Amino acid sequence: xxxxxLGTDGPKVLVVGVDGSTTSMRAGAYxxxxxxxxxxxxxxxxxxxxxxFVGLAPGAAAVARQADHELAEDLRRQVVEGAAAAGVRxxxxxxxxxxxAELVRVADEVSADGVIVGASTRAGHRxxxxxxIRLVKAGRWPVTVVP
Length: 147
Fold this sequence. Notes:
- The longest helix is centred in the middle third of the chain and has 29 residues, at 58-86.
- The N and C termini lie far apart (39 Å).
- The chain has helices spanning 22-38, 58-86, 99-109, 125-128, 131-138; strands spanning 13-18, 41-48, 89-96, 114-118, 143-146.
- It is built from five helices and five strands.
- β2, α2 and β3 (89-96) form a beta-alpha-beta unit.
- The protein has one domain: HUPs (Rossmann fold, 3-Layer(aba) Sandwich), CATH 3.40.50.620.
């Protein structure tokens, strides 16, 4: 029988996905509060969807990529400032690809104890499946979905 170790229960590393949407920002705030209370490390992930730029005219694709990068930099700034104010150890990652695949990859790389995402607001996701549902079905970590 193993002994209970005081102070070692609870998540050590939390991953939260943000994309600038209202629900993802709520998820980020929830994750920051949880990380602060649990003294966890917070990994904030922004996934740039490279496929969103495919098929655009070269000039339009460049403008879209720049706008996407500016959003990521704004989110990075918010994470750094918010974490410093709250006393949370947070790291921001800007990655490119499929949101599900990238969140899974990052969560596995950092040995996440939990993943937090915002609920999808797209009606079609009720039928096709949202990012949150796919993460829950993966069954690798507890997943918290913030409305």
